[in-house]
Design goal:
Helices cover 28% and strands 24% of the residues. It has eight helices and eleven strands. It comes from Sphingobium chlorophenolicum.
Length: 255
């Protein structure tokens, strides 16, 4: 989800200052309802956002929930946590999820300890930390194995925090119902990705038609500027919890 790791690391040096600016600009909040007839995703119509290091949000958004990329667990060598944010700003009035992007699941104690320590540091800085989100591209037919990994994370994660994951739309179409039911016992939320890069995945309506029995509370992730029309009956789904918008820089929107 997003840009390559090297660029993210460089951009992360400015993340703390930009988040502090975000806090000062966005102290006011209001109940925002998205325009369900819009063809293009306008962040101003939403209140939950993915904010990656290096992205500068516009001043006309008023977030209540922020998903902040904290770091990565990359392929190659021994597993270790690569932190991408250099500072910890205080963001009053915002619910914070720290996101860890994982390219591998063979985590050791040093990885989990580093991640949990970051959760504590953000909380001790005066932030309302909802929990940890794992961004891992689990293949639809590999959900069962991923669920076992998540069980281990959940067992170690202090109950103070919730556990969220990103998920593919294909899970609803071809995922094993029993595997999804088991996953519902472990995670508190799935954020379903509807895009690749900067573009919405075509025919997304077909996937959502198959989500009638999806057993886990979920948000739907949209990309800023992407094409979107809310599928019929999505808003009435008992597990639907709203949207989260993946923010882009202005230059990216023009490409």
């Amino acid at each position: 989800m997003g840009e390559g790791p090297a660029l993210l690391l460089v951009r992360g040096l400015l993340a703390g200052r930009r988040l502090a600016l975000l806090a000062s600009v966005l102290l006011t909040g209001c109940d925002i309802q998205p325009d369900r007839q819009a063809g293009s995703v306008d962040p101003a119509a939403y209140d939950a956002f993915y904010l990656w290091p290096g992205v500068r949000p516009t001043g006309d958004i008023r977030p209540k929930t922020l998903y902040l990329l904290d770091g990565e667990v990359r392929r190659g060598g021994a597993a270790r946590f690569e932190r991408l944010r250099m500072g910890i700003p205080r963001l009053p009035g915002k619910t914070i999820w720290l996101v860890v992007r994982a390219e591998r699941l063979d985590w050791n104690d040093m990885v989990t300890t580093a991640i949990f320590n970051d959760l504590r540091r953000w909380q001790e800085a005066g932030n309302e930390v909802a929990g940890l989100q794992l961004d891992f591209d689990a293949a639809t037919r590999g959900i069962e194995g991923y669920a076992k990994f998540l069980e281990k994370v959940r067992q170690r994660l202090p109950r103070t925090w919730r556990l969220s994951i990103t998920g593919l739309m294909d899970w609803s179409a071809h995922g094993d119902p029993q595997a999804l039911t088991n996953l519902a016992k472990t995670v508190d939320e799935v954020v379903v990705q509807t895009y690749q890069g900067r573009s919405t995945i075509p025919d997304y309506e077909d996937y959502f038609r198959r989500m009638e029995n999806f057993p886990i509370p979920f948000r739907v992730a949209l990309v800023e500027g992407g094409s979107w029309r809310e599928p019929a009956r999505l808003a009435q789904h008992p597990q639907f919890r709203g949207y989260a918008i993946f923010l882009l820089n202005t230059a990216e929107l023009r490409r």
